Amino acid sequence: MIRKFSALCAAALLLSGCGGSDSNESGVNLPTITNVPQMAVAGLPFQFQPALSGNTSAIQFSAKGLPDWASVDRDSGIITGTPGTDDVTAYHPFQLVVITDGQSRPFDAALTVAHTAEFQPRQAVDFRATDYDGNPRPLRNDLSNGNLAGEVMFAQSHTVKPNGNYDRDAGDETRSHYKPRLVALREALLMFTPEASETPVTVHAQLHQNGDPIGELALVHPNDLPASDHEGRHRIEYSTRAWSTTVPWNLVRNGLSVTFIVNKGAPDERSGTLVAADIDIGEASQIVFQSIRLGMLTHVDHNNGHFTLRDPVMAATDYFQTLPVSKMIMASYADMELDRVIIANGKIYDSVSDSEGGVYSGDMRENVAKSQVSVGINQANYGVTSSNMSQRYGHVFKQITNHHAWGNYQNGRQGHGLSGGNGIGTLYDSWGNEASHEWGHAYGLGHYPGANLTEDGRWQRHHADSGWGFIAHRNRMRDNLSHNSWSEDKLPDGSHFLGRIPYRYDSMSGGGGGNRFSHYTHYTGYTARIIQNDLAQFPIPDTSYATGYKMWNTETGQYEPHMFTDGIQPRVPVQVGVPVATLLGGYDPDGSNAVIYPVFHGNYGNVFELPKPAPTGDSCWLTVRNGANQQKQIAVAAGRHTNATINQFHVNLEADFRPTEATLNCRRNGSVAELARTSFDGQIPELPPAAIVGQERGFKQLAAREIATLNETLGNLADDAFPLVDANTQVLLASYDSAELINALSNQAKQVLQVLQQHQKHVSSARALITRLEHSNASQTEIRGKLTDFLIQKGYIRTAEDMELEGTVLRNGNQQIGLIPDENGYLPVFNDADEHPDAARWLMSARGSLHPVEKPWLCLAPTSGRLGLALCDPSRENQQWRYREDTTLQNLGSGQCIDYAWHNQTVLMYGCHGNGNQRWQGVTRTGSPLLAALPGYVVRALYQR
Question: How far is CA 44 from CA 91, 116, 266, 371, 893, in A?
Fold first, then answer.
């Protein structure tokens, strides 16, 4: 796709000029321009010197309409300048004027400026290039109404086609398609792959809503498609041919159409439209998560796995990327330790349960944690004041209430987890596959969904057509492959990409967790479609709608008031998403046993005008008072909801009411009896704000936190002449656009950012320079010379002598790590008291990368549990090492250490223990910015002979 010359420029400059003939009336020959300029490249110096024929005496030059970045020398006619990224264009017309003998002769011409990325090939495997069976994937044409053909894909939680994502073939499920639809009101990565005959300079997308223009977006070059998160032997990208851009959340709605324009404004401009009827957009749905730690006659624990409570902002942002939903709320309740509980038969415990408990067992697990607390919190947010204690209830909107719960049982203190469904999550950990799996049950998913549809069980795992994801807050594509895994034997393509790398399994089918960008399991397209359909059926509470609830209309592309059709109108909330004081407990309206628990405090809930008790007849009610002598009375059921259990009550009050006392009374046959009374301290515990992601909230909460971190990190580098940032900081910097960072950082941090950005531009220009020279058939020596000059000019080195490298052999006793990998890509080990001739000499850069001096463009990296070499990439954490005080070498990506395995004389990655077989001598450090900052592609051009 790289062009050496611009056909547009050639056609323009070979014209004979506006004057027509090549001689004037006196017969004097007039000059003609006989050469054409090369295409300019953003970020690289450009020069064009016109070659003239005919009369060359007394010639001067001028130009009309040159872009701002270019200028012409009056005497020589040389056009020079360096275009920036904003100057990329397929066609910029101008006139070059030749002046001779007092006559001016204009020549119509045009400049073309290519993306820098066009000259930065990724050298990656294209995932989209092959289908389920490993055969070349044909390119689909999704466009009409024009002369341009190409394939369109969208990426949100999953990569999806514009339409046809659900296409079942019941007779042959291997021919079926199962994926979610595009989600309304959610940011989407838009990808366009033109047919193979197209080699665009630029691609633009014009967006329309119901035929009205709503914006135009410039797509970035395929080499700038968001990078994948894959880690392994080969670099794998979702596509190496797809142009891409991000469609803002508010523009993704029904009625959207997209017109793609190749080489806009150029004579060879082509266009085609993805019409609105061919874009299938689903509902703008919402889900609310609540989380609490609960001790039942015991204390609660705090551990790192309580992700939704420990870091709700990151938990919400992370899980959002796996779910086809438009908006997500991750809310929290304060820890609760109950010293008195009531169970479904009305019995009250104040020290220990009568039953034994376990992961799936225990009466308090069932009746207190799941029913009274999780279901109770859900019901309080629906405006339902009482219900049965058997967990049978209607779901007004989509909410899942998680508890990390422990109880005191006959067999001691027991924790509960590994369970989900019915709006409840009973979890040990609220991250990893446990959370993804148990929440999956709450969407109606069973175990191994789709496993029996085909003989090969393809729908229970990822495969070539199950979808990748888009981790939007990191601007990363999410692959569906196992990381650092490679089969030496060729296996079926359906289960192994390239026949070598296993696909991941779905969360409901024994799947594993995430990767360095995510703690959650990525659902397959098959289960994501089921999840999307489950979420889409629920209305969303919103006080700005008359009914108190809204639903997305896929015909109009708008939210509309939701009218419940089952004859039951839930209570209309008067406040949505406010801090609440939730009163929970159990009571027997036919007896005398009741318990009112301490106030459960949450940071996000709904408040209602709750029913008041009837003045006459049998009734039960709660009376709640506060320190200001205010009182609320709330009616609860006067009889059992079901004969099998006593009742439970659940009421939300605004937190600022600050309850200090609650009583539960029942009037039976005209006589009022007090069943329970509990006093409270009236305090509101400190809780973090609820985490909200999606729609207008985007990822603003995470951004505010991370930009504050960047402000501190970059500020600390202000005195460094050549600032280097670690892999985590690189991830944060890549997550936000430059304008967002510049506006938020301090002046000191901003200056460091500008240095880093300038460095990044230098690296991009260096890569583009190399590729440009290679495509002009420059020799290796010429490339090395021009690149060296460039690096000297930019301050990376002072002279060519600064490029000299000296390293040492890495030793564990007499064991030395070799340089040449075996046939499987693993580095050998040599046993030699002296320096073995095949042992590598290593250098550690300032960023912690380990380079063999003989091939410094390569970096030491784990591969399938062993050690191998990979082309250096400064952004890869698995290429960075920490040389610790105990002389162990720890990989920053995996956290494991290099280990010499005595039983088979190999080096492998293993948990760090510091024993003798993990201690390595010979780590030589260098402060050279060449190895610390430049990617392997550039370093190779400097050193390869």
Answer: 18, 8, 22, 66, 34
- Dihedrals phi, psi of 895, to nearest 5 degrees: 80, 0
Q: Look at the block and give the residue holding tokens 């954490």.
A: 877
How is the chain split into domains, by residue range? Answer: 7-114, 125-282, 289-455+565-695, 699-800, 804-943
Q: Which tens digits make up the pLDDT trace of 414-473?
A: 999 999 999 999 999 999 999 999 999 999 999 999 999 999 999 999 999 999 999 999
The number of CA neighbours under 13 Å toward the Cβ of 300 is 17
Does 7-114 match 125-282 in CATH topology? Answer: yes
- Residues annotated within the binding site are 437, 441, 447
**Which fold would CATH assign to domain 804-943?**
Trefoil (Acidic Fibroblast Growth Factor, subunit A) (2.80.10)
Q: pLDDT tens, 634-665?
A: 999 999 999 999 999 999 999 999 999 999 99
Q: What is the maximal distance between C-alpha atoms in the chain?
A: 125
List residues forming the annotated binding site for Zn(2+).
Answer: 437, 441, 447
CATH fold of 125-282? Immunoglobulin-like (2.60.40)
* CA 27 distance to own-chain centroid: 69
Q: pLDDT for 875-891, tens place per residue?
A: 888 899 999 999 999 99
Active-site residue numbers? Answer: 438
Quote the pLDDT of residue 54.
Answer: 65
pLDDT at residue 70 tops 70: yes
CATH code 2.60.40.10 for 7-114? yes
Q: b/e for 674-704, b at 16 or more Cβ within 10 A?
A: ebbebebebebeebeebbbbbbeebbebbbe
Residue 234 has pLDDT above 90, yes or no: no
